[in-house]
Write a structure and sequence with these properties.
Shape: elongated
Number of helices: 6
Order of helices and strands: EHEEEHEEEEEEHEHEHEEEEEEEH
Helix content: 10-25%
Strand content: 25-35%
Largest sheet: 7 strands, mixed
CATH topology of the largest domain: FAD/NAD(P)-binding domain
CATH class of the largest domain: Alpha Beta
Distance between the termini: 16 Å
Bound molecules: flavin-adenine dinucleotide
Number of domains: 2
CATH architecture of the largest domain: 3-Layer(bba) Sandwich
Structural class: alpha/beta
Length: about 300
């Protein structure tokens, strides 16, 4: 059996595995895809100490660093359920069961897609999901934000300080964001809000050149020329498989305390799958370290 079994091999899981292995305890990592969301990222400019890197490169060094330690990496394996018996038992989709004294859950999250033509094609070529990450790429250019909830409006306010102009497209007749955010966004001279707008296509050549939307009231189609489209319609944590085993928020995020502990003693969580305030690589790595140290602390006390 493992002392610490990490589920997920993104920045949070890799960091948890290294911190656990450095304590000389039996550590395993199960990951569907090692590297996680980092594998889907083009340029990364906010990973402190590294002015610029690319996702696949950072993912490869994450794996290389983990492999430097005695960590059992089980890549391309998906966890199916977690049960507490004598030890924790993690059942995998392939039928195998892994046993461990403690578990660190770090299964990350995924951005909800709008699913229109051009979205997948122009991902990282103008279609973006993270304003903190990709905002500066569009300095001085026109962009759209799809989604008028809190994350969409926060993104629009953030981007308005960097880009030339922001168009917010909301599907419903009104914005869903908090009142203070709405007031702030409406006060900005370089933001236009369009409600009742159903985005129908993102178009371009090598890169995004614009988008088309249908006014849901008149059924008329419009197009806007743009360099970038930020899709902000929600981040979904990869926690469905946990069902009722650990406590989750109404958004499905695993609830953790400052040591990364969940409501089940011995089960810790880190990164984008938790209710942490912000979702970034550096933040996930920090919380992975916290969860592993929390797990080690649990082991020496029990
Ligand atoms: P993830 O990276 O999501 O990793 C989750 C891991 O769990 C993966 O290995 C996955 O395969 C695995 N997994 C999921 N479910 C299961 C299961 N059931 N069983 C086994 N394994 C499972 N952040 C920045 O700081 N800077 C940036 O520039 C930046 N750009 C981004 C660009 C894009 C396009 C995206 C999508 C995100 C970007 N982010 C950026 C956010 C950053 O990638 C995430 O915050 C970070 O990867 C979260 O790390 P994580 O380890 O918590 O989760």
């Amino acid at each position: 059996a493992f002392d610490v079994l990490v589920v997920g091999g993104g920045p949070a899981g890799a960091s948890a595995a290294i911190y656990a292995a450095r304590k000389g305890i039996r550590t395993g990592v199960v990951a569907e895809r090692f590297g996680g969301q980092v594998q889907d990222t083009m340029g990364i400019e906010n990973f402190i100490t590294t002015k610029y890197t690319e996702g696949p490169k950072l993912a490869a060094s994450l794996e290389e660093h983990v492999r430097d330690y005695e960590v059992d990496i089980m890549d391309s394996m998906r966890a199916k359920s977690l049960e507490k018996k004598d030890l924790f038992e993690l059942e995998l989709e392939n039928g195998a069961t892994l046993k461990s004294k403690t578990v660190v859950l770090s299964t990350g999250a995924r951005w909800r897609n709008i699913g229109v033509p051009g979205e997948a094609e122009f991902k990282n070529k103008g279609v973006a999901y993270c304003p903190h990450c990709d905002g500066p790429i569009f300095e001085g250019k026109d962009v759209a934000v799809i989604g008028g909830g809190n994350s969409g409006i926060e993104a629009a306010i953030d981007l308005a300080g960097i880009v030339k102009h922001v168009t917010v497209l909301e599907f419903l007749p009104e914005l869903k964001a908090d009142k203070v955010l709405q007031e702030r966004v409406y006060s900005l001279p370089n933001v236009t809000v369009i409600t009742n707008a159903r985005t129908s296509e993102i178009y371009g050549d090598q890169k995004v050149q614009g988008l088309r939307y249908v006014d849901r009231e008149t059924e008329e189609e419009h197009s806007i020329e743009l360099a970038g489209v930020f899709v902000q319609i929600g981040l979904v944590p990869n926690t469905e498989w946990l069902e009722d085993t650990v406590e989750r928020s109404k958004f499905g995020e695993i609830i953790v305390d400052k040591r990364g502990s969940t409501n089940i003693p011995g089960v810790f969580a880190a990164g984008d799958c938790t209710d942490s305030a912000y979702k970034q690589i550096i933040i996930s790595m920090g919380s992975g370290a916290t969860a592993a140290l929390g797990a080690f602390d649990h082991l020496i006390r029990n």
